[in-house]
Structure formats: structure tokens, C-alpha cells
Amino acid sequence: MSDFHFDRRQVRRNFARAADTYEKHDALQREVQATLIDRLDIYEQVPDVVLDVGAGTGRGSAALKKRYPKAQVVAIDLALPMLKQAKQHASWLKPFGRVLGDAYTLPVPDRSVDVLFSNLCFQWCEDLPRLFAECARVLKPGGLLTFSTFGPDTLKELRASWAEADQYAHVARFLDMHDVGDAMLAQGLRDPVLFAERYTLTYPTPRALLDELKGLGANNADAQRPRGLTGKRHYQRMVEAYESLRTDGVIPSTWEVVTAHAWGPPAGQSRREGSGEIASFPIENLRGSRRKTPF
User: Fold this and answer.
1) Burial class of residue 93 (count of CB atoms within 10 Å of its CB; 0-12, 13-18, 19+)
2) What region holds the Methyltransferase type domain (predicted)?
């Protein structure tokens, strides 16, 4: 699916270190979260179980609990310090669970989730077939998957500026919306709908942008990233290239945000795995169709 891979341990370390600073820099994340929450109107049922995958500091989990007060809302995150921060948003009147877990291996049973919500987390999961197979596994038939992720134009100015300095990967790379949609269909998720929007944020200096990325935990976690310290000369070349984009006293930064939703597949619907297809369904569905063979 992709020619690049994230270092999962580095992703975890980055977000663990950013737990204390995340909410000082999450204006875009809050904006996108509000959009996703509003779009939950398409789910017309009352859910029993709601997962917030990549919950971070728990703002989204709290909003989901407010919207669905009778549901069991569970915040799942890869970084334990983020879940510790999330406790501040869980009131005794509207509590939600906090569970350490990975989007690739969600710690819940098959077909047990009514709504699977994820705000700006899936961009760190480049193995889309594995990711969406797991989403299809845990969703009830007709359950709702709704999420946001970053598209490939995100941080394009920073990426181009680093390319002027050297040939190393300094900025994370993200997958195209069409690849995301194809992967959802391939894993049996029904009727996917995707939107792409671009936000332009501005900063006083390139350093301010880099500080925000660090504060969010969005540092480069590409497995092919340079492991040593970046030389001052290379860094200065990047800054000079970025400064050439300055307009009206600020520098721009593009963030391409893809939002999407789809529905859990019915039991027994097949999905691709490797070169073939597999289907899963409750064993009870076999009962009554067995025939005894006389001896």
C-alpha cells in the first residue's frame, strides 16, 4: 500500500512526551473534532458501546460521553501519559473508560462496538488493510466508523523546505484519500464517504511551527528518518527556504484533513486478505444447516 513505514515505538514515545503540552497546541484538532461530532447525526440509534481510538488527552471522549450519556464510552490510546491526562476530562457524572491499546489490535471483542470514533490518529497507521480489517472486526453490523486523518499535502511547505537542505525524511508522509477509501472497501466496510479540506495555519517563524509539532507529539516518526542531530547548516538552509514563503509577516503551513465515515459489514460479508477473501460470522448461524450423515 505504501513505500514508507512509521516506527511505532517512536510514535508512542513522541505522544508520551507531549502529554503535558498537547492541549496548548491542539486548536486544529479541536476544530476537526467538532466537525466529526456534528456528523454523528447520521447515526440515528442509541449506542451501547462507543470507542474513541487515539483519544489523546480525552477531549473527544468527554464530548462523546456528553452526546451519548447512557453509552459505555472508552478512550483508547497508545501512550499511557495521554490517558493519565484524559482523567481530567472524565467527571463523576459523565465518566468514560481509559484503556491502553493500539488501533491495529483493539482490546474489544468481535462485533461489539456501535460507534468507532477517531480524530487525527489514523495517519500514524500506514498499514491500511490491517487498520480497517480491525475496524470491521470490532464494529457491529451497521455500526458507524467515523474518523479524520491527515492527507499527503499536510506540511507540504515544511517538507519542501527541508528538501532544499538535504535528501533525508524530516517530515512525516501521509496517504492519499483514494488509498484510504479503497482500503475501507477492501476490508468490507460499507458505503464509505470521504471529504478532504485544507486548512492554512500561520506562524511567526519556522521554529514556532516546529515547536508546535513537538508540543503535539507530531514529530517525525518515519522509520527512515535521520537518527543523528541535524546539522546547523542544514537547519539554516531549511529556515531560509521556508522564509522565502513569508507573506504579510507570517509563514504558512498547509494541513490537509480527510474526514470519512462507513458502516460495519453484515456478518458473513467477505473481505480481502492477501490474494483471497475471507468471511466471518457467528457459529450459531451454522446451526440448523448441518445435516447428519447416516452410517
Assistant:
1) exposed
2) 51-146
